[in-house]
């Protein structure tokens, strides 16, 4: 793709955010039939990836033996096939050494497609620009979970289910309030998320049987529980840092409005969040809704593979996200900008980074994520 095309795509995404900031306050944020058609049209215009199916022939120069292994349509080779390459009885087979999974796909997924070089991001085949322009976060969450955009009735039921699970046990709020007043919100979030497993033993395979999550009904319940409770816990963690008591959620507001309400209302039930801010927050939630096989996703999958409850697995994922080489980098950028102070200080700061006066320059040189298979 030419640089001009890439720039156009980037400007298009910025225009989406600008539109939400400048639009009328009473404008609804619905995914209309027209927008759905736009998504489908955009999806169909993208050429499918080439079929890479075939075979790979390997000659082991150590033994002179010849091996042939199948290559899948998406150009992958099963690592376990290489175990067949041995030098003798005491050799357990060839192994792959790949720190950081830089060229290893531990899972095949149809949820997300990302090509950082081409500036492409799609959820379930839908371009992110279209979803950010015309859908709400909960619509996108439904799409990611179930593979299709919800109908009007499905969306209403989904939103209701999530809102009904927005309250958290008082014990969780007590745990948050017992934390030091200057505790980092991410540390509080990890602790509170893990503690949810104590209050929901019905979601623990160790207590209810190892086949617990084979039940679609059980899985669906945990999904709406987590979506509902996460903003409440996050808001309570922030309010603890601010020295304010937690605020109960409001089921009459949208997902993003409710989060802003808990952050800013000070308990005033008549408080109405700024609809423009709520809309932009919704877009930001959409852009971060699918994180493909990053450190936090891998951490959650590793933990879940042992059969633990979903809350402990998510607490581990949040802990991974907390790291400065993952989600913590966003916080580092904000701190850096605060230290710079104003635009006129930028040249001196950059020179300081070049001359090693400052440790690093956050927000640039980020490791490009590989396209997930």
UniProtKB/TrEMBL annotation:
Is Metal-binding tagged as a keyword? no
Give me any GO biological process, just one: tricarboxylic acid cycle
CC terms in the record's Gene Ontology section: mitochondrial matrix
Origin superkingdom: Eukaryota
Q: Does the keyword Transport apply?
A: no
The UniProt keywords, alphabetically, are: Transferase
Q: Which GO terms describe its molecular function?
A: acyltransferase activity, acyl groups converted into alkyl on transfer
Q: Which Gene3D superfamilies match?
A: Citrate Synthase, domain 1
Q: Name one Pfam family in it.
A: Citrate_synt
Family statement drawn from the similarity comment of this UniProt entry: Belongs to the citrate synthase family.
The protein's name is Citrate synthase
């Amino acid at each position: 793709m030419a640089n001009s095309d890439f720039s156009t795509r980037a400007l298009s995404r910025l225009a989406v955010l600008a539109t939400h900031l400048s639009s009328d306050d009473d404008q609804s944020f619905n995914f209309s039939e027209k927008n759905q058609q736009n998504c489908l049209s955009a999806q169909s215009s993208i050429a499918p990836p080439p079929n890479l199916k075939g075979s790979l022939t390997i000659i082991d120069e150590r033994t002179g033996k010849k091996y042939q292994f199948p290559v899948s349509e998406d150009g992958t080779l099963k690592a376990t096939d290489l175990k067949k390459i041995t030098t003798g009885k005491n050799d357990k087979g060839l192994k792959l050494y790949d720190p950081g999974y830089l060229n290893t796909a531990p899972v095949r997924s149809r949820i997300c497609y990302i090509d950082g070089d081409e500036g492409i991001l799609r959820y379930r085949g839908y371009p992110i620009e279209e979803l950010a322009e015309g859908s709400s976060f909960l619509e996108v969450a439904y799409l990611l979970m179930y593979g299709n955009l919800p109908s009007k009735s499905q969306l209403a039921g989904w939103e209701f289910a999530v809102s009904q699970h927005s309250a958290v046990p008082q014990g969780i709020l007590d745990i948050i309030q017992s934390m030091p007043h200057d505790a980092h919100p991410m540390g509080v979030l990890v602790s509170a998320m893990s503690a949810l497993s104590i209050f929901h033993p019905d979601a623990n395979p160790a207590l209810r049987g190892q086949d617990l999550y084979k039940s679609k009904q059980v899985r669906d319940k945990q999904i709406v529980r987590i979506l509902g409770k996460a903003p409440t816990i996050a808001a309570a963690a922030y309010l603890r840092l601010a020295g304010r008591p937690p605020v109960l959620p409001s089921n009459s507001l949208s997902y993003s409005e409710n989060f802003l309400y808990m952050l800013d209302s000070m308990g005033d039930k008549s408080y109405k969040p700024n609809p423009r801010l709520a809309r932009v927050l919704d877009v930001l939630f959409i852009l971060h809704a699918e994180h493909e096989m990053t450190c936090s996703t891998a951490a959650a999958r590793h933990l879940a593979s042992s059969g633990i409850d979903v809350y402990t697995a998510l607490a581990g994922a949040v802990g991974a996200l907390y790291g400065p080489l993952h989600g913590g980098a966003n916080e580092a950028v904000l701190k850096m900008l605060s230290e710079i102070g104003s635009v006129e200080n930028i040249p001196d700061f950059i020179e300081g980074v070049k001359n090693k006066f400052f440790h690093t320059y956050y927000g640039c040189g980020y490791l490009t994520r590989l396209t997930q298979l």
